[in-house]
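fyi for ur records
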Amino acid sequence: MNEANIGELIELLGRWATGRGPLYLLLAARLRDLIDDGLLPPDTALPPDRVLARRLAVARGTVVAAYDLLQQEARVVRRRGSGTRVAAADLPATRAANEVGSNPLLSHILHPPDGVTLLTCAAPDEPPPLLAEAFRQAVSLLPERDLGYHPAGHPALRAAVAAYYTGRDLPTDPSQIMVTTGAQQAITLLTGLLVNPGDVVQTESPTYPGALEVFRHAAAVIRPRLEPGERPALMYAIPTASNPAGTIMDTATRRRLAAAATEHDVPLIDDEVCAELCFSGSAPPPLASFTSGEQIITIASLSKLVWGGLRVGWIRAAAPLVSRLARLRAVHDLGGDVLSQLAAASVLSRLPEVRQARVEALRHRHDHLLSRLRARLPSWEVFPALGGQTVWARLPRGDADTFAQVALRHGVAIPPGRSFDPQGGHADHLRLHFLFPPEELTAAIDALAQAWAAYDGARHPATRHTLIV
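which gave:
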């Protein structure tokens, strides 16, 4: 990059350092925006560390840390001798994952590879028959006159979700409910309202990578464990049917977690997206049931219980927070699709029926997956799930990132463990979902067994990738 191009980049960066938080996070956030908006196209050369640091009047370490963070997010590629460049938008399947640190869960949604069995995205791909019936009923309920703009959600669905929580012994008023376009939007809106660049967000490890992407995009510092004296701006947990491991938090731990959020006055997101998929029966109480404070924010959706294409989720929170979120949401899209919300209200009225059919199928497929793994990959350590849609597995040797590349060449896409770790650990783990019918799961495990036989893990010791945040 010549001096003229560096000058153009400085102009594009603008007032990048005027936010709150560490300078490297602020610089990474602005570069991220420029890359995502296409103002820095793929393969654009970025200035050397020392040059950009001098032009920005910051320490070289600030630029190095910003570049390293963007490399972990797969937005730039750094190679010794050839500098730092904006990463290609569509990465070749054979490129080693540890070169760019890409998130396969998102990349396989944006650019699904042909002829590959996707064990990456854990969402049902079979809309249940009752969904079509729910939409037919929704059409009959469309009002004769209604603008259709409901930033906080259609009143019928807000009332239905409030009744759902009240039925779980968590009294809820419709004013405490905000409807969202899935739980991912719920996390994004809450982060946008509650988190500033440089703020600390505390999460579990491993945890849902979609949430980690949101927190990183907000230039937050993500911590599984807080440093001495550190106070998070937000906490995020999946206590019921967790992603990726399918675990269920015990009651005593739920009480302690809720009490800690209340005592320290820290907002805590309780992600209940898979809460209705517990194999043993009804979902445990939400974290908000264990405190009278307003710090607990519950989010959920119908994407895992019903179908990923039914983009309806919600937030349960204090009414004043819901009002603030609705104002923020109105800036983006004025509210969600009314027909889908009316259909979702119909589905909620038949929740026991939906849950029973879904859980029975998942439990059967879970047991089948574990049986095939024991038969074909006995050296893998697989942790049975108590609910949800996924299991967590540990390889006996090698690196899950590298093995994922071998598996891809055998026709199966799997997400390596570091995608679920806010600090890039769990490099010897991977997640497997059990959403496919038994015969498809069998074929997928057979292919993984062939890939494992072809993979020489002894040459690839597990790499502990560590993010700066």
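DSSP finds 16 helices and 15 strands in the chain. thats all i got for now
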